[in-house]
Design goal:
Number of helices: 9
Strand content: 25-35%
Number of domains: 2
Radius of gyration: 19 Å
Distance between the termini: 42 Å
Shape: globular
Structural class: alpha+beta
Length: 261
Amino acid sequence: MLEWSDVSSGTDLAAALGFPPPEDVAWARVVDGDAESVELKVLLTPRPGSTVHLVGRHGRVRTRRLHLLDTPDLGLAHRGVHVRLRDRGRGRWDLTVRVRGEDPVPGGAPPAASRIELDMLPGLVHRSTEIRAALDVERALDVRDERVPVQKVLTDDQEALLQGAAGDLGSEELGVFGPLVIERASVPRSLCGIAHARHERFRFPGGRVLEEFSARCAPADACRTAEDVAVFLATHGLVPAPPHRSKTTMWTEQLRRAPRR
């Protein structure tokens, strides 16, 4: 593997991160697949002031709080199913049912309202089928505080996706884990040359902190965007922190090590 500090071209830097080379068949699969968008993600070594360094002192940082709903033994996560309640601030909440994998509803098709996205991390590609819906404050707080089962507030399409992916497990009582606190800032295109880039800082329950740089693009632009991301990170002295995993994966790993009481 190339050393991060020894290379300068976008192609070599992307390879040093762990993304496939331009001629790799993986990029053709991305373009020819059914995903509507691709999000390229790189974990970073946390450092003080990194967000200000990237977006400037006047950049807007938004705080999100993410709650995971699952059985006590994380049975849904084990099947690649994630039910997430998100507090976006200022009274705005949403609820997402997300399923990882090529066949989210075994033996059937996902609801028409489903959205398909690829998360590309160095060395990893996750295909996700998801349905997100806004939730009013009162209902969101009822779910967060476990006064109302989440199944009572799912849309018909969300319920169909959950039941199709998880079977009877989707009808079980789900507890609430979290929150995972996310500080998110959009990185202006004028600074990074990437249309939809952002920097996030995660604070896990228990105090662990991680950072991530991500960029969303069309599948046809994924290879070039991976190179742009790699160049931007190297230019700004941002140090990758492998092994690269999604924040939900790291969170569920942490929860498994410290079971919910």
